[in-house]
Specification:
Number of domains: 2
Number of helices: 10
Order of helices and strands: EEHEEEHHHEHEEEHHEEEEHHEEH
Helix content: 25-40%
Radius of gyration: 23 Å
Strand content: 25-35%
Number of strands: 15
Length: 351
């Protein structure tokens, strides 16, 4: 493919095609794909849930994703391997992914976004803006996406054959261009596509970089800033540990070195949008770590609802920060958190 700029005088200036080497190695392409997953496949956007995910053979999946239907998508960069090696690796990866349970996918997502209680069903529903009656069953099917600056005829032919047998394979060629003035362009063509009893014992994924208090506060709008200023001050006054994730944070109680999450805070750019989430039922929260019965969590769930701020969100509650809140409203949420923290400290850890 040749790419031209149309100058003011009507003349064409050609952009020069550059190979992915030096500062544009496959690692950079991987980062571009990770940050821009829309349009990778032919039929919609993807939710990236893991990067450099370890398989049971000790190899690494470049990117692991979910599509709208909840099917797992293995994204593999071709690199300098032979066509046979590329396809063998991709099939190995998807055979591993086929055995992942919803709980293991949730674990991969939690490691990737640096948040222990990552509720994959709710995260997926928010990301794709699913309708309330739109049901999803995770990992009923799997897909392979092979990406490279050049996808050979051998890979195209074999991938087309696999598609004819019901294995969903998409092959994408990326081209990188640069102008004399330094403007960079990236184009991609879908060259193929466009139309278990197995157990996995351990899952792991690389992580996105963590945010900071400063970056978090700068990302908030006028509705979120007053709430989170009060919430973070509340945590500092009581010496509650704050764990920063890739977008937001968790607010915790320290029980002899073990941190129990009370709630989570998210900025407007997060999948959950600007909000405060409870941590009653998920991993890292009340029931998973603290010596309490279900009725205690049920009571706190009802008490949070009674504030008029929190709304049901899957297993948890979500306080959407989409309007201005009075000092009294914010106080009611902080008082609820104070009671929750006192109960956690009183009951102690599970033995």
């Amino acid at each position: 493919m040749r790419v031209f700029a149309i100058e003011n005088d009507g003349n064409f200036t050609e952009y020069l095609s550059k190979p992915f080497h030096g500062s544009y190695q496959e690692k950079v392409l991987e980062e571009w794909l990770e940050g821009n997953p829309d349009g990778i496949v032919e039929d919609g956007r993807l939710l990236i849930i893991g990067r450099q995910v370890s398989t049971n053979f000790g190899s690494m999946i470049d990117l692991l994703a979910l599509d709208r239907a909840g099917d797992v998508v293995v994204i593999e960069l071709k690199r300098d391997r032979t066509p046979r090696e590329t396809l063998t690796q991709a099939l190995e990866y998807v055979s591993y992914a086929e055995a992942l349970s919803a709980e293991q996918l949730e674990s991969i997502l939690a490691q990737y976004i640096n948040e222990e209680p990552a509720h994959i069903a709710e995260y997926h529903r928010e990301y794709f803006a699913l309708a309330p009656d739109e049901a999803v069953a995770f990992n009923k099917d799997q897909r392979i996406v092979i990406v490279g600056q050049r996808v050979t005829e051998e890979i195209r032919q074999t991938s087309s054959f696999l598609r004819s047998k019901g294995i969903r394979v998409t092959c994408i060629e990326f081209s990188y261009f640069e102008s004399a003035g330094g403007l960079r362009l990236l184009s991609h063509d879908i060259v193929v596509g466009g139309d278990s009893s197995k157990k996995v014992s351990k899952v792991s994924s690389g992580s996105l970089p963590l945010t900071s208090k400063q970056n978090f506060m700068e990302a908030l709008d006028a509705f979120g800033k007053p709430v989170f200023q009060r919430l973070l001050s509340f945590a500092e006054e009581r010496h509650f540990p704050i764990h920063w994730g890739t977008k937001g944070f968790s607010l915790n109680v320290d029980l002899d070195g073990t941190h129990v999450a009370l709630c989570f805070g998210y900025p407007p750019s997060a999948v959950y949008r600007q909000s405060v989430y409870t941590a009653l039922y998920g991993r890292g929260g009340l029931l998973s770590k603290v010596n309490v019965q279900d009725d205690t969590a049920t009571k706190f769930f009802a008490d949070a609802r009674s504030t008029g701020l929190f709304k049901p969100a899957g297993r948890e509650l979500r306080w959407p920060l989409d309007r201005a809140f009075t000092a009294e409203e914010i106080d009611s949420a902080l008082q609820w958190l104070d009671r929750l923290a006192a109960t956690v400290a009183e009951r102690g850890l599970l033995t």
